[in-house]
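Hi L.,

You mentioned the student needs an example of a multi-chain input paired with its predicted structure. This one should do, with 224 residues in total across all chains.
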Amino acid sequence: GQNIDQPTEMTATEGAIVQINCTYQTSGFNGLFWYQQHAGEAPTFLSYNVLDGLEEKGRFSSFLSRSKGYSYLLLKELQMKDSASYLCAVMDSNYQLIWGAGTKLIIKP
Amino acid sequence: GAVVSQHPSRVICKSGTSVKIECRSLDFQATTMFWYRQFPKQSLMLMATSNEGSKATYEQGVEKDKFLINHASLTLSTLTVTSAHPEDSSFYICSARGIRDTEAFFGQGTRLTVV
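Structure written out for the whole complex:
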């Protein structure tokens, strides 16, 4: 079966760095997405990785290793507004998105 | 990025009535629309996938006669919750993808409360 695993909850301190991991087992692979979702709102796109390596976009970076079925989202200089759920999703061979359950990130002052 | 507009953002309806939710792609042609449901503190659950001009493909466990999906044009898809019950109360989100896109763009979501 298809499976996406990510931690349920993480806590970090304002100004610090946090890494949210995601491992996956899917039928085929056409890219991995990270989304941010604040409570009561729809997800917003953060990043897309289809090749191995690190993609940096401001304070957020995303890494992919296809051979390991592994990705992480790195958030630097954490701000209180970064408190949200972070969803990992993989596009399978049918171009369908398989979603992880999300990681709730709690930022403390 | 592309804009997807979902309406209404919030709706309260009486048990037994039907509710229609619209999802529009404003600046691109959405060949594929996805409808999700999200219960509190849970991840997105795909309900159905629709391609313009064809019948929607429903996920296992989703009643197609209860959740009617219409994708009649490249810019509009609708989800109608028929004979709504309190257990249908949830956050419904659409996303749309163009033929050349890998990313799917999300609507703002609709908070449905059935009383």
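You could point out the following to them. The two ends of chain A are 40 Å apart (CA to CA). The CA atoms of residues 29 and 92 of chain A lie 5 Å apart.

Best wishes,
N.
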